[in-house]
Write a structure and sequence with these properties.
heterodimer; A: alpha/beta; Rossmann fold; six-stranded mixed β-sheet; four-stranded antiparallel β-sheet
Chain lengths: 434, 321
């Protein structure tokens, strides 16, 4: 089996040894109705309502959607549109915390007895792909014909620089993960479970081997430390040798991929009845005074989280949701921690200095390192000349925006940006042709 | 409102490799051969190289000024072109011809097509061919190493010409490797070029595909054409512009295919054409023509050797979900 290409990015995982601190004091908590892929959640609270930790704020509004729960106790202050990281305005519930962090007395253990009730419990838990993608996990696990599932892959690759929140899950919550694995075996009939971890995390590999030993039919696969091992298609290929076909889903080749924190969170919900209300996130970057891992109530503003970590040691030039390879830069610090936020990075002026793109020198680096085998230069050329058939022919739609091409480009060209534009244009063209 | 935060599309970190850094590596890799040229052909080798480099840089600067483009001399690519062109000239070349060649390389071959990355042919190679066809006499007026420094020009035939015509005694393989034979000022010392080539490989500026395929093909063909003679094979790969061409000019990014298979095919093509011209053509040397011809084929090779896309649906059958 050939190994897929990628890039050796700096790891910068200096927070790996930092056991997460708890952050509970918030001035405000903000819950946008879009914290997942799919239809926006539908608010069920109004101004003035009292809420507790774990109280339902918004319910799933369709088959592909996810409920949102409060991470603090307090009062609903207002419902107002906020700017989301995608650049769209979405309604959000603002809560004034009372500081008590009282759990909702109405929380009950979900009744799980068979596959259907298990999948329903996962839907109710509010869990989405916590690795960053945010796809509702209940929808992913809702496989009608269980015999289609040959393998479930647990994603512990954590290939993005800086981020160590999954590392902490594997180290601190391996028992939750073990419980989760047993649930998958019991209710989804998972015959084989593979835990994929990058080689640069030997401690995690040891912890995972330990839980693999306590559950049957679980193997730990050590992955090369080459970005992007955690990308779904790359992970599936390197753990099973299977190739997800164009336009298909992992389940089409008998595979389901779950992030390790996603799995642990599902297990905790089923054990305690507490839905997804908090996240362990890595706070790091050159502008952060005290880089560390923090368990943060979802809804906390970035301003509060950075303040908790000692504030900034220098003026930040760029603030990111997520890692530096695929993370999203945000316009201000009043945006909240979302369900799928796994890291907040503040880069100082030097790290955030803009780079000037120069002529492509056709060195071929982007083409040779693309994990999928795409030719970003050809995509840029075809997009530039409006050649939609050309884009389709070179499979521009398969780009997963991992960032490798832009990373290696010596001319510092914005290749990922071009790919994104090309994908959108291609999708619109294909739709118009139908 | 907070202080201004930058909003850009990911990724937010970039590798430290830059165009200028790559070109600097090529300049460094050419230095052993430059030192060898000065030792072999005297200070005039450095003088000619300086003329070419200066003319290349100046003509790039002036052209970009006139056409109101962003100046790009900082990326050092004009320096590389100047050095490579100089290495392809006989040390006795008149200064004005070296200047004409440099202007042709930068203005006609590079800038008129859009500047760095947009030229379809290697500027230094093309300029060398233009000079060869325009000033055949001075471009083939070879000097014996060490024959210029004492002010007396002692002309000599190149090893490939000797091999073709059999007029003089052939230099030994050892002399060939050290460059103690007539030829262009930067091409004779195979050893120095090899050191530079290995440096480029270590720095990952180039990959092994093109040089190995190019030199390997010439080696194999010469081996068989020379009646299974290893000596002939080594003789062929150590003489002429092969080392310079295979490591420094056939590996030019803009004018060669990007993928490994593409580079292999490109190198084999260069090797075939070089060997054919050397063995059966009227010119004693064919490296420049081989590279130029393969430059023209590059878009087709690139298309032919595109990488396989993981999970891609068959052409024309894009799955819909």
């Amino acid at each position: 089996m050939r190994r897929l290409q990628g890039v050796r990015v700096p790891h910068l995982k200096s927070t790996a040894g930092s056991a997460p601190a708890n952050m509970t004091n918030l001035d405000v908590a903000i819950y946008p109705m879009v914290q997942h892929i799919g239809a926006p959640a539908e608010a069920v609270r109004q101004k003035g309502d009292a809420v507790c930790v774990g109280t339902l704020l918004a319910r799933a509004s369709g088959p592909v959607s996810s409920p949102i729960y409060s991470g603090v106790s307090g009062t609903v202050e207002k419902i107002e549109e906020v700017l989301s990281s995608s650049g769209k305005y979405v309604p959000a519930i603002f809560i004034k915390p009372d500081g008590a962090m009282t759990p909702d007395p109405g929380l009950a253990l979900p009744k799980v007895s068979d596959t259907q009730s298990f999948v329903q419990a996962v839907r109710d838990s509010g869990v989405v792909g916590l690795g960053g993608a945010g796809f509702p996990t209940g929808v992913k696990l809702d496989v009608q014909d269980l015999s289609r599932i040959q393998e479930i892959i647990i994603n512990g690759a954590e290939c993005e620089p800086y981020i160590t929140s999954d590392t902490r899950t594997m180290l601190d919550r391996s028992q939750d993960m073990l419980e989760g694995i047993r649930l998958l075996q019991k209710y989804l009939g998972a015959k084989k479970i593979v835990i994929g971890v990058e080689k640069n995390k030997p401690q995690c590999i040891r912890a995972m081997k330990q839980i693999a030993g306590s559950a049957g039919a679980v193997v730990v696969k050590e992955l090369p430390s080459i970005y992007p091992q955690g990308a779904e298609k790359v992970l599936i290929y390197h753990t099973t040798g299977k190739v997800v076909p164009e336009g298909g889903l992992p389940i089409d080749v008998g595979v389901i991929v779950l992030n390790c924190t996603t799995l642990a969170t599902i297990a905790r919900y089923i054990r305690t009845g507490m839905p997804l209300v908090e996240k362990c996130i890595t706070v790091d970057g050159s502008a952060v005074e005290k880089p560390q891992n923090v368990i943060v109530p979802i809804g906390a503003t970035l301003r509060a989280v950075f303040a908790f970590c000692g504030g900034f040691k220098s003026q930040p030039g760029k603030i990111l949701y997520g890692g530096p390879m695929m993370g999203i830069s945000v316009p201000d610090l009043d945006m909240p921690v979302l369900k799928q936020t796994n890291a907040l990075l503040a880069l100082d002026a030097r790290d955030a200095a803009p780079v000037d793109a120069t002529n492509c020198i056709r060195c071929g680096r982007c083409t040779n390192i693309c994990p999928i085998g795409l030719a970003p230069v050809s995509i840029a050329t075809a997009y530039g000349s409006g050649d939609m058939e050309g884009l389709q022919k070179i499979h521009a739609n398969l780009c997963m925006e991992c960032g490798c091409c832009s990373y290696v480009c010596p001319a510092k060209r914005p290749l990922v940006q071009q790919n994104k534009l090309a994908k959108a244009a291609l999708a619109a063209w294909q739709k118009s042709k139908k | 409102m907070d202080q201004k935060l930058q909003i850009t599309v990911s990724p937010h970190i970039r590798s430290s490799v830059t165009t200028g850094g790559i070109m600097l590596d090529v300049v460094i890799a050419l230095c052993p051969a430059l030192v060898a040229a000065v030792l072999l052909f005297g200070a005039r080798a450095l003088y000619i190289t300086a003329i070419c480099v200066l003319t290349c840089v100046l003509s790039e600067l002036i052209f970009e000024r006139i056409t109101k483009r962003t100046p790009t001399i900082g990326d050092l690519s004009a320096v590389v072109t100047g050095m490579l062109l100089a290495f392809n000239l006989p040390v006795s070349i008149p200064e004005w011809q070296a200047i004409v060649g440099s202007v042709v390389a930068i203005v006609v071959v590079k800038q008129l097509f859009g500047g760095i990355g947009h030229n379809f042919a290697n500027p230094a190679i093309t300029a060398r061919i233009v000079l060869l066809l325009s000033f055949s006499q001075s471009m083939t007026n070879w000097t014996k190493p060490g024959g210029f420094s004492d002010g007396e020009l002692v002309s000599s035939a190149t090893p490939l010409a000797i091999a073709a015509e059999g007029t003089e005694k052939l230099p030994s393989l050892f002399d060939l490797a050290l460059g103690r034979h007539a030829g262009c000022l930067g091409e004779t010392c195979a050893l120095a070029l090899l050191i530079g080539g290995i440096y480029l490989l270590i720095r990952r500026v180039i990959t092994w595909h093109t040089p190995v395929a190019f030199i390997g093909t010439v080696f194999v063909i010469s081996f068989f054409a020379g009646g299974l003679s290893l000596e002939t094979a080594f003789y062929q790969i150590l003489s002429g512009g092969l080392m310079l061409g295979a490591f420094f000019m056939a590996t030019d990014y803009a004018t060669s295919p990007p993928t490994g298979w593409g580079k292999l095919l490109f190198g084999v093509g260069c090797g075939l054409i070089t060997a054919a011209i050397r063995l059966w053509g009227t010119y004693p040397e064919g490296v420049s023509f081989a590279i130029l011809l393969m430059n023209i084929l590059t878009p087709y090779i690139t298309k032919l050797c595109a990488r396989k896309v993981l999970g891609a649906a068959r052409a024309g059958k894009v799955q819909k979900t």
